[in-house]
């Protein structure tokens, strides 16, 4: 079952990566007609992210004797991110009523259910395997924790910069400044990619790796579109600002 979920996730990642170079997912600045019924963005974000919070929690908590300290530790890490995404981020949105196509909510809901299940099963399996070994006593664990924490801080801080900007622009899009926006156009995406890469390294699991790859496949094409959109929209957009990798690309 775990392997099947991982293969499905990788298939989702490949499909998203190819498709998103041709079509911008129709939400936020790319929202447009022709994508069927829509719901308010706040509910969209909450509903579609919720399974990632619930499914993994149920799986690990129902199998605590197997998952052990390893499973619980990484569950807390995972839930920190998803608590923010499900119960904090949607309530801070500055345009909560913006239409969010139902089709995207359904797609993300399916993915998040599979992803939560895959990572939950992996934590239970690995927790059992690592029960007697020092899973914290390896450099990759600490490297992963460092990446995850740094990524989360970048992600949440960049979301905050955008919120402040939106309030200042009274609903309009403006050129963001501050934090990593000085260097790249989509630091919120960069933060999320770094976070899940860190999780994959720290857990050393294929399910973690599949999610990190999906996040990159999903957000990288959108980061390119956002960068082009900023350059098209604002004549004074900082020329030195890169797409996603400070000073590089
Ligand atoms: N793991 C994954 O695969 C995945 C997938 C998708 C998203 N996410 C995460 O979900 C979060 C939101 O994603 P997103 O694609 O909606 O990010 P986004 O396009 O950067 O938008 C984030 C928020 O900031 C507002 N905003 C963006 N640019 C603005 C500007 N120049 N001026 C004023 N307001 C601006 C947006 O308003 P509008 O809604 O009006 O544009 C939205 O409320 C991100 O942190 C991302 O990492 C993760």
Main features:
249 residues; mainly alpha; 2 strands; globular; binds NADP nicotinamide-adenine-dinucleotide phosphate
What layout of secondary structure does this protein have?
Elements: H1 2-19, E1 38-40, H2 41-62, H3 64-92, E2 99-101, H4 102-129, H5 139-168, H6 187-203, H7 206-233
Antiparallel strand pairs: 1-2
Helix pairs in contact: 1-4, 1-7, 2-3, 2-4, 3-4, 4-7, 5-6, 6-7
First CA to last CA: what distance? 38 Å
Helix proportion of residues, in percent? 55-70%
What small molecules does the structure contain?
Answer: NADP nicotinamide-adenine-dinucleotide phosphate
Low-confidence stretches: none
The total of helices stands at 7
Biggest β-sheet: strands ordered side by side in the sheet: 1-2
Number of DSSP-assigned strands: 2
Q: Which range does the strand content fall in?
A: under 5%
Q: Quickly count the domains.
A: 1
| Shape assignment | globular
Q: Cα-atom Rg, whole angstroms?
A: 18 Å
Order of helices and strands: HEHHEHHHH
- Mean pLDDT comes to 95
């Amino acid at each position: 079952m775990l392997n099947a979920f991982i293969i499905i996730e990788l298939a989702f990642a490949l499909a998203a990566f190819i498709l998103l170079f041709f079509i911008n997912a129709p939400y936020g600045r790319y929202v447009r007609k022709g994508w069927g019924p829509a719901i308010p963005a706040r509910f969209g974000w909450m509903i579609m992210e919720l399974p990632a919070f619930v499914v993994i929690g149920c799986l690990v908590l129902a199998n605590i004797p197997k998952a052990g300290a390893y499973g619980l530790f990484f569950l807390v890490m995972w839930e920190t991110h998803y608590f923010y995404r499900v119960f904090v981020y949607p309530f801070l949105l500055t345009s909560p009523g913006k239409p969010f196509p139902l089709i995207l909510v359904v797609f993300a809901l399916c993915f998040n259910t599979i992803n939560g299940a895959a990572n939950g099963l992996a934590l239970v399996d690995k927790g059992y395997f690592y029960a007697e070994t020092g899973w914290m006593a390896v450099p990759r664990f600490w490297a992963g924790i460092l990446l995850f924490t740094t990524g989360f801080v970048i992600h949440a801080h960049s979301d905050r910069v955008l919120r402040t900007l939106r309030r200042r622009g009274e609903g309009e899009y403006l050129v963001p400044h501050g934090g990593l926006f000085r260097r790249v156009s989509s630091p919120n995406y960069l933060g999320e990619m770094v976070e899940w890469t860190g999780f994959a390294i720290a857990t050393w699991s294929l399910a973690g790796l599949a999610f990190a790859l999906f996040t990159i496949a999903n957000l990288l094409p959108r980061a390119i579109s956002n960068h082009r959109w900023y350059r098209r929209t604002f004549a004074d957009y900082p020329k030195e600002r890169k797409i996603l990798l400070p000073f590089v690309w």
